[in-house]
Amino acid sequence: MARAAGQDPYQYRRRLIGRHPQAGKFLAVLDAAAKAAGWGEPAPAGRHRGIALEEVDNAFIAAVAEISVGDDGALRVHRFVCALDPGHVVNPLTTEMQIESGVAFGLTAALYGEIGIRDGRVMQSNFHDYRMLRLAEMPKVETVLVPSGGFWGGVGEPPSAIVAPAVCNAIFAATGQRIRSLPLKNHELRKI
Amino acid sequence: MFSTAIPSRRNMRWPESSQEERMIKLTINGQSHDVDVEPDTPLLWVIRDTIGLTGTKYGCGIVQCGACTVHIDGAAVRSCGLAVSDAAGKQITTIEGLGPNGNLHKVQQAWIDNDVPQCGYCQSGMIMAVAALLKDKPKPTDADIDKALTNICRCGTYQQVRAGIHAAVANA
After folding, report:
1. What does B103-162 look like in DSSP terms, one character per residue?
2. Do A128 and B64 touch (CB under 8 A)?
3. Nearest to A100 among B65, B146, B156 (CB)
4. Cβ A105–B156 below 8 Å, yes or no?
5. Does the ipTM surpass 0.90?
6. pTM, whole model, 2 decimals?
7. Which residue of B lies nearest to A109 if distances are taken between CA atoms?
């Protein structure tokens, strides 16, 4: 929609969310993520950014994914900036680690997560056919905490949920492809 | 660095023999053990169930995740895929014997200092893999770490693991 409107995806979200009753909280995380990610400045050579904004489990979260797509279609998520307002932050270290966890979990789901049923049975049985993210694939996660003091919100699940939209928006920026189904392993990424 | 092949079952049939001849001699953390188990039993189950050292964890059982990593003659090996008979006569080190003289190994200390673990289940295998890496490469690059650390952590502590490795190197 931002594309159709000829607008920057970040500014487009700013304008759209402006009339929401919780606009202040949405804008705080959106601005924090965009600022930390350097949105508006050019991405490093060969890298592309995607932005996403959500309310999950009463927490407000925005994220910017920085990715590259190789000539062979190989997707690499280099950096993932997350701004979270969970209401209150008791232990910032635990919260940051939960966000890193959520990104690893969400990226595993976005890239590989698929359960198939054949003849009434689940086809996957173990890590050889149900792949997990490994250390080499882990992006650098940068967290910005912007607690607003409102009612308590989630910490681990919001980042899990925002990985796929942020990464898919970055894929659109990189290749022009709109991804309409997950996991990403089933798609051939290429510039169109 | 890892033994990734799952040894084939040997279908060994026991000849009529005395109990003593069936014993397999293992050296774990410097201690000798004579164990009476089938020779194709995965080393993991002998370490955990027969010897009772439960720091080494069972994850996938198919040499994918690395929760069961131990050292055999100093190299990281996934013990779920190794027949106990193939470990006989070798120096086996588990997480319980990693630190010198009951003290913490520098990787364990770095893990505590940096709050690396979350649920912790994979971390004894992770620490064993890291300790073996640092023995081979005392100052690993991020690329070395990416290549060597293929252990799975479902909590996703990978960023903390990387930070912990660099901290262990800096404190060495």
Report:
1. SPPHHHHHHHHTT--SS-TTHHHHHHHHHHHHHH-SS--HHHHHHH-----TT--HHHHH
2. yes
3. B156
4. yes
5. yes
6. 0.90
7. B154
